[in-house]
Design brief:
Strand content: 15-25%
Radius of gyration: 16 Å
Helix content: 10-25%
CATH class: Alpha Beta
Order of helices and strands: HEEEEEEEHEHE
Oligomer: single chain
Low-confidence stretches: 1-44, 101-111
CATH architecture: Roll
CATH topology: Chitinase A, domain 3
Number of strands: 9
């Protein structure tokens, strides 16, 4: 199942990696393509901001490709999410993808599990939890997740979303386990909010 109606994911990923998108300029003019943002846990790292994305107060960047018409989830609501995940700092590799090309590194059996969690329960990374709170059922949103809103130091062993294939787990683990100064841990997700169920 494709999350988007046109092949935006690969085109967008290539644009992000090749610098085809012009980073948003900071309030003070600078020749640098990055701006400094305060992180959630300590001093923030240099982060590239993109002009066609909205920026939340926490540092999450997001862009809606389809606005949903259903319910907006609240705390403790159970959500069902279809998703893809891409490493920004590791050659734009997918660690979760649908409709993968035959013979590709992420070829699998064609069945990937949906992500299901209760909003605010701490079972997914903060960036994904925050993103779905602003969506409506049926909506599709792309998010750029800085390291501060991503996975903890022990990776995806305790929190999701977790890649469903070994190759995806290996790619994501390679990024997350690398030294802080060697690889950009920024991640990009496409999220489709399939359904919202109130708590019983």
């Amino acid at each position: 199942m494709r999350l988007l109606t046109e092949p935006l994911t690969r085109r967008m990923t290539a644009a992000l990696l090749m610098g085809a998108l012009s980073p948003r300029q900071p309030a003070v003019a600078s020749s640098s393509s990055t701006v400094r943002m305060e992180g959630l846990r300590g001093e923030g790292k240099a982060t590239t901001l993109y002009p066609d994305f909205s920026l939340s107060g926490t540092g999450l960047q997001f862009k809606d490709y389809k606005l949903g018409t259903g319910v907006t989830p609240g705390a403790s609501d159970r959500v069902l999410v279809d998703w893809t995940g891409v490493t920004v700092g590791y050659q734009g590799r997918y660690f979760e993808a649908r409709n993968k090309p035959k013979g590709g590194a992420f070829e699998g059996d064609g069945f990937l599990s949906y992500l299901s969690f209760a909003v605010g329960d701490g079972s997914v990374i903060p960036g994904v939890d925050e993103a779905v709170r602003g969506m409506k059922a049926g909506g599709i949103r792309r998010i750029v997740v800085p390291a501060e809103l991503g996975y903890p130091k022990d990776g995806f062993s305790r929190v999701g979303p977790k890649p469903s294939t070994f190759s995806g787990q290996r790619a994501l683990d390679f990024v997350l386990s690398s030294k802080e100064d060697l690889m950009d841990k920024t991640l990009m997700f496409d999220l489709k909010l399939v359904s919202v169920t109130p708590p019983k």
